């Protein structure tokens, strides 16, 4: 039957167009009982708010608690304790690599370095007055040290591995070093020898200790025990000084030696017994020493800030509770130690004097002003090899 003119065509029946139960939508019939949206409310927004869902709230709470716990664990202070082994100048120490090659390793009064904002002060190996000695006399017998090592192939190989040369190159390496005495209590990484391998521990060497330094002014051999030395490493957490401390020892006065920016031509040294100053060419053993005037600047400030001559402390006293190994604390706890220092290159560079390093253009810079100390994330006290005379145990094996 044809539709009437003006009438709307019928829409085909589909589920979408099917009437919903509950009567027609719209304003509703009498009494309002069949209308009002017609039906069961399955549209969007019909569920309960998420915060009223117990499982969801429990999951979110667990995530928050876990995040708080992780934050506390990662940010709370570490319970780690680092040990620094105090080593008097005259002691051989534990686990020596060789017998002593020191001609002179008597304790001297450590000058007080310029203080930095950190735990310790760092100075370039080229700084005048950082080292001392006696004119025309080497603090170490280099040839004796060579004979000790070449006569013990296993130790020679271990020594070579620490300093970064081949075993056959050890004699040449040692002859390239300069024998001096420390003018300040100095921290280094010390390497002993035990059970056929090297050991490693952080140590403070007393002022007056005989050492050999490389062309950049970094201590490389402790002559009293033949132990190779490397730059100190960063100390973690609280720092305890163990071993044998000496009169006047203060962890805050310990220094760290940084490699000079270029090879050193001459070291400017001070004789602690006479107070006189002299120069020693790098790689020589005292035969080419020459007098010089006091430098304008030292690690302590003006040369007049150096301790009076002939002041020599005793070789060391065993602190209470330090007769055991480096694991035994002296009871002294310092704060965060200084950061580790980087390794030095043993080659290259333009020769320069400790009184003035040669700049990139070959001109003298007029001397390197000692730094007032650079903190590298907590440096401890500078170190040495070996153990204190009569009072130290054996340092930890690596």
Automatic annotation (TrEMBL):
<keyword id="KW-0472">Membrane</keyword>
<keyword id="KW-0812">Transmembrane</keyword>
<feature type="compositionally biased region" description="Low complexity">
    <location>
        <begin position="281"/>
        <end position="291"/>
    </location>
</feature>
<feature type="compositionally biased region" description="Low complexity">
    <location>
        <begin position="312"/>
        <end position="339"/>
    </location>
</feature>
<feature type="region of interest" description="Disordered">
    <location>
        <begin position="85"/>
        <end position="130"/>
    </location>
</feature>
<feature type="region of interest" description="Disordered">
    <location>
        <begin position="1"/>
        <end position="49"/>
    </location>
</feature>
<feature type="domain" description="DUF6777">
    <location>
        <begin position="122"/>
        <end position="283"/>
    </location>
</feature>
<feature type="compositionally biased region" description="Polar residues">
    <location>
        <begin position="92"/>
        <end position="124"/>
    </location>
</feature>
<feature type="compositionally biased region" description="Gly residues">
    <location>
        <begin position="356"/>
        <end position="366"/>
    </location>
</feature>
<feature type="region of interest" description="Disordered">
    <location>
        <begin position="272"/>
        <end position="398"/>
    </location>
</feature>
<feature type="transmembrane region" description="Helical">
    <location>
        <begin position="57"/>
        <end position="75"/>
    </location>
</feature>
<protein>
    <recommendedName>
        <fullName>DUF6777 domain-containing protein</fullName>
    </recommendedName>
</protein>
<keyword id="KW-1133">Transmembrane helix</keyword>
<dbReference type="Pfam" id="PF20568">
    <property type="entry name" value="DUF6777"/>
</dbReference>
<dbReference type="InterPro" id="IPR046704">
    <property type="entry name" value="DUF6777"/>
</dbReference>
<feature type="compositionally biased region" description="Gly residues">
    <location>
        <begin position="374"/>
        <end position="398"/>
    </location>
</feature>
<feature type="compositionally biased region" description="Gly residues">
    <location>
        <begin position="23"/>
        <end position="48"/>
    </location>
</feature>
